[in-house]
Amino acid sequence: MTNKRADRQERGIARRLGGRQQPRSGAGPWRKHDVDQGDFLIEAKYTDAKSLSIKLADWEVLRRRARTEGKLPMYCIEIGGRRLLVAEEGDVTDR
Prior knowledge:
This protein is of the alpha+beta class. Helices cover 35% and strands 27% of the residues.
């Protein structure tokens, strides 16, 4: 994804979910991942393709970093003109 496209997606997620975009898209040693939304640490994904894969190892990295900050992990995925939120069931149902 282009930096412009990623930046626009992250700003939109932060605005819609009431969070804040992480500086430099989490590229520095601190403030990893794309959006901090209070309860959730969010990683943004986008594709023009008809499918997108999520690797368990990537989810575990997000989960570990989120837990370290006292937050819950979430993916925000844009695919096929739709916006999807992906979180672990227990994180949503146990609240």
